[in-house]
Amino acid sequence: MQDAGAAAIELNIYLVPGQFDITGADVEERHLEILAAVKDEVTIPVSVKLSPFFSAFGDFAHRLDRAGADGLVLFNRFLQPDVDVERLQVTTETELSTPADAKVPRMWIASLAGKLKASLAATSGVETSEDIVKYLLAGADVVMTTSSLVRHGPAYIDVLTAGLKNWLERKELTLAAARGALAVPAGVDSGSYQRAGYVAALEKAKSTYAPM
Predict the structure, then answer these.
(1) CATH of region 9-183, choose from 3.20.20.70, 3.40.50.720, 2.120.10.30, 3.40.640.10
(2) pLDDT band at 78 (very low <50, low <70, confident <90, very high)
(3) Are 137 and 180 spatial neighbours (Cβ–Cβ below 8 Å)?
(4) Cα dist. 172→94, 136, 176, 177 in Å?
(5) How far apart are CA 143 and CA 103, in angstroms?
(6) Which residues lie closer than 8 Å to 69 by C-beta, 6 or more apart?
(7) Staple 126 to which of 41, 131, 168, 212, CB 3.0 to 4.6 Å?
(8) Measured CA distances, 148 to 24, 45, 130 (Å)
(9) Positive or negative CA dihedral for 204, 210, 211, 212?
(10) Domain range annotation of the chain
(11) Quick check: 133 and 164 in contact, CB under 8 A?
């Protein structure tokens, strides 16, 4: 790929540890081995596209960063089969992502922003320019989308970029000033920060639903 002119490589590692004798540590080591093998062969930047299914994702992100990953792409979506109860069959249709899919990657981007040398790329759940803005505020260096272009066509990228430009102008912000504005602050424990948010969400839910 480098010889063909690629400016960078994204390693899309699709590894589902279905065997019972494979440990979480084994899965992490396999990712690190793949990254090291590719880095040994090329000089262009190499990013790693990951799933969120690691027991301690923050630690693993730091390990990939120390191993030389130039970027982390959050997150890959594994195939999620469904069941047809009438035909008694497993179905494997591919579903396009929705904004609801952005919450987990956005949370981790906000937690990791400013704490790694690697760039952070957001993928999944981008449908409107507002979704792009949310990712940028969380700290994403790059925002990616496929589903919205499949739904609306390639020209829809102009709608997304125009919406982002309009938002920046309305808020009188530069892209650099917006990026990471709502990330977990430096020096703050991410776990404690998220727990505080969880408590606040419960209090809000209580005030919203308790009268019912």
Answers:
(1) 3.20.20.70
(2) confident
(3) yes
(4) 40, 15, 12, 10
(5) 14
(6) 35, 46, 47, 48, 118
(7) 131
(8) 33, 27, 13
(9) positive
(10) 9-183
(11) yes
